[in-house]
């Protein structure tokens, strides 16, 4: 069974600054995928970034990047130049490679506040 | 505008009521999901439909009854609910259920906020 742990229930950042959200996971599989989803007040969960475990290079999507430490089973999300629209709940999730989406495991989430 | 639309946005119902949640996707996906989101808990997968057939039922109580009449529509029929069923119910869809890799990300709707009184 997979587990995903987000140890920070809440985080805050000043607009234009950088913040890092933590995520650790536990899996016995060697092939898996990791995701960060964002849920703004509109409640719609949106995929922010995705990382394949077999790729050593950290995924990047504009201002969002990850620090994937496979040996440590750590998958943190870095948001650079934070904007007010980044305020949301952020969920880390994992899935076994070749596994179905119904084996997607979510963490409890981190509430990010962006201060003007 | 989301490709996955959920109605109603809010629902308050008594424990003896019968109501239904509706989800519609306009993305051409063939897999649809119901998730339950409670405060301070991870998302809980309830049901999965692939090509209109139920492929996953995560030990959900029978007071929740899903229905998938076609690949674009998904319903969750509710009856004799309990107060602890109050939560945000999220619908999602994907192109396939992702068995062949992570290339079938979930697309979520805005959810229905359900309150059981």
Short description:
Chain A is mainly β and 116 residues long.
Please characterize this protein's 3D structure.
The complex is a heterodimer of chains A (116) and B (117). Chain A has no helices and twelve strands. Chain A is mainly beta and 116 residues long. In chain A, β10 and β11 form a beta hairpin. The termini of chain A are far apart. Chain B is mainly beta and 117 residues long. Chain B is built from no helices and eleven strands. In chain B, strands 2, 4, 5, 6, 9, 10 and 11 form a seven-stranded mixed β-sheet that branches. Chain B has a four-stranded antiparallel β-sheet with strand order 1-3-8-7, with no helix packed on it. The radius of gyration of chain B is 14 Å and the shape is globular. The mean pLDDT of chain B is 89. Chains A and B meet through β6 and β11 of A and β9 of B.
Q: What keywords describe this structure?
A:
heterodimer, A: 116 residues, mainly beta, six-stranded mixed beta sheet, four-stranded antiparallel beta sheet, 12 strands, B: 117 residues, seven-stranded mixed beta sheet, 0% helix, 55% strand, globular
Q: Categorize the overall geometry of chain A.
A: globular
How many helices of chain B? The count is 0
Structural class of chain B: mainly beta
The averaged pLDDT of chain B comes out at 89
Order of helices and strands of chain A: EEEEEEEEEEEE
Span of the ends, CA to CA of chain A = 41 Å
Q: Helicity level of chain B, as a percent range? A: under 10%
Estimated share of beta-strand residues of chain B = over 45%
Low-pLDDT regions of chain B: none
Rounded radius of gyration of chain A (Å):
14 Å
Characterize the largest beta sheet of chain B: strand count, sense, and whether it forms a barrel.
7 strands, mixed
């Amino acid at each position: 069974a997979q587990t995903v742990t987000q140890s920070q229930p809440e985080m805050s950042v000043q607009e234009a600054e950088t913040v890092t959200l933590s995520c650790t996971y536990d899996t016995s599989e060697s092939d898996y995928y990791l995701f960060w989803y964002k849920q703004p007040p509109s409640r719609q969960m949106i995929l922010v970034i995705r990382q394949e475990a077999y790729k050593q290079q950290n995924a990047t999507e504009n201002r969002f990047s990850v620090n994937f430490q496979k040996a440590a089973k750590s998958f943190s999300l870095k948001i650079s130049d934070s904007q007010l629209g980044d305020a949301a709940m952020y969920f880390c999730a994992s899935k076994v490679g070749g596994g179905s989406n119904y084996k997607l495991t979510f963490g409890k989430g981190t509430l990010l506040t962006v201060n003007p | 505008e989301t490709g996955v639309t959920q109605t109603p946005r809010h629902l308050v119902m008594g424990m003896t009521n019968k109501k239904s949640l509706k989800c519609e996707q306009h993305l051409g996906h063939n897999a649809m999901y119901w998730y339950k989101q409670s405060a301070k808990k991870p998302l809980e997968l309830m049901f999965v439909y692939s090509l209109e057939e139920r492929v996953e039922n995560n030990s959900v109580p029978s007071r929740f009854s899903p229905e998938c009449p076609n690949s674009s529509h998904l319903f969750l029929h509710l009856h004799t609910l309990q107060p602890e069923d109050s939560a945000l119910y999220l619908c999602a869809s994907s192109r396939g259920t992702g068995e062949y890799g992570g290339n079938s990300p979930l697309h979520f709707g805005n959810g229905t906020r359900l309150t059981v009184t």
